Amino acid sequence: MTILSFILFLASTWLFTPTSDSHDANRLSVPLGGNAWVTTSLDQSPNITNNGLTDWTQPEAVVSAYVRFARAGKLKLSAVLSVPEGESNLRVTVLGKPVQFSASGSAEKEYFLGEWAVQKPGYVRIDVQGLSKTGPAFGQLRELGISGNAMDEKTVFVRTNEGNFFYWGRRGPSVHLKYTTPENSDTEWFYNEITVPEGSDVIGSYFMANGFAEGYFGIQVNSPTERRVLFSVWSPFKTDNPKDIPDDQKILLAKKGAGVTTNDFGNEGSGGQSYLRYNWQAGRTYRFLLRGQPTDGGYTTYTAYFSDAENQQWKLIASFKRPKTTTYLKSFHSFLENFIPNTGNIARQVAFGNQWVCTKDGVWQEVLTARFTGDATARAAFRQDYAGGLLPSNRFFLKNCGFFDDAVPLNATFTRQPLRKAPSVNFSQLP
Predict the structure, then answer these.
(1) What are φ and ψ of residue 378, in 5° steps?
(2) What pLDDT digit, counting tens, does each position of 132-178 carry?
C-alpha cells in the first residue's frame, strides 16, 4: 500500500465508522443475489449467487448493483458482509463519490458507508471493488442497506427471492408487442421483418419476430461464436418436462431444412424445437414467414421460413404438426428477452417493420397497430428498464435491460403509417 492510499484508507475509516444504527428508519435491504452483476470482463471470480457475492478474490473485479429512485433526495448506504479470514480493504462508489472501508471477522456485520445526494429520479449504480486483503478472499457480501428521503414506495429493485425472482430479476424484464389483426379471419400466413441495431446483439438475447398462440420464431445470440434462428411449437399437454408428454400429444416433425437441428424442449412449457446455426449480423434486416394450416387427423401444421432481406431466397427452418389442434394463426406478437442472467445489466434493442398477415384465400392485410406489454418482472416493478413503441423510421421497437431511465408505460398502444408493400411470396416455390 502506498503512503497516499494508506492516508486515504485511514481517513475513510475515521469518517465512516462501522455501525449498524446509522440508517434512517426507512432502511431497506438490497440483496445482491437479485440486483448485482460483475461489470468487468472477468472469466472467473466473483460469482453472484442467491446468497450474494462469493468467490471474491480478484481486485480487478467491479460488482455493480442498481436501484431506481422515483425522486431526488438523500441516500444513506451500508454493506452487510463477512470476511472469514484476514482483513479486507474495500471501496464503494456511488454517483462519482468513492468511499473506502475495512472489514474483518467471520461473523456478518453491517458497515455504514455514508450519505449521497440523488439529484434526479432514475437508476443509481453502486459499484463495489476489493482493493487489498490479507486473507484468500475479500469476503462474502450479501446485501446493501439503503435509507433516506430519496426512497419511497416507488423505489425499484428486486426485494426478495420469492417466486425465484433473483433469477428473473437478473435476467431482466421481457417485453412484447401484441399486434392488432383482422378478427374473424382465417389467417394462414404471418410476415415480419427484424433489424437488430449494431451493438444490440448482446449474448443471451432472443429477438422473437413471429409469435403465435402455439409457439414462437426468431433469432438468438447464444455465445460469442454462435447465433441461431429458432422456431418452436408447444405441445397441447401442459408440462415443463417433455418426457411427460403422452404420445398422442407430442409435436411431430413433418420436415426440416438443411442444417437444421430438431429436438424436444422443456422448462417453459414443452414441445418441439428447431434451430439453424446462422451467423446473422446486427444492422441487417431479416425476413420471417410463418404458416399455420389445419391438416387431417386433428392437427395444425406450422411451418417457418427465414431469409436475409437482401437475398430473397427463403430457407425452410422446420414444419411441425401439433395434435388436438384445428386452427389458423392467431395471437400475433413479437418479443425481446434475455435468457442469460449474467448479461441482464446490458441494454439491447430491436426494430420490427412491415408486418403483414395473409388469409387462406391469399389476401394480404397490413398490420399497423401494436400494444406494448411486459412480463411478470416488469409488471411487478422489480425492473423498470424497458421500452417499446414507434421509431422515426416507422418501425416498432422493443428495448430492455441496461438500467436506462426513459421507460415507456406498459399497455401503451402505437400505430405506424402504412407502407403498402405487401410481401412478394410465391407460395408454390417455397421449400
Answers:
(1) -70, -45
(2) 999 999 999 999 999 999 999 999 999 999 999 999 999 999 999 99
Complete domains list, the chain, with CATH: 3-157 (2.60.120.260), 174-429 (2.60.120.200)
- What are the tens digits of pLDDT across the range 222-237? 999 999 999 999 998 8
∠151-154-156 over CA atoms, to 5°?
85
| C-alpha dist (Å) from residue 30 to 36, 54, 60, 121 | 9, 16, 23, 18
Do 39 and 114 contact (CB within 8 A), yes or no? Answer: no
Which residues 6+ apart lie within 8 Å of 363 measured at CB? none
pTM over 0.85: yes
Count how many Cα atoms sit within 13 Å of the Cα of residue 340 in the half-sphere of its side chain: 15
> Residue 8: helix, strand or coil by DSSP?
helix
Q: Which residues contact 12 (CB under 8 A, 6 or more apart)?
A: 99, 100, 101
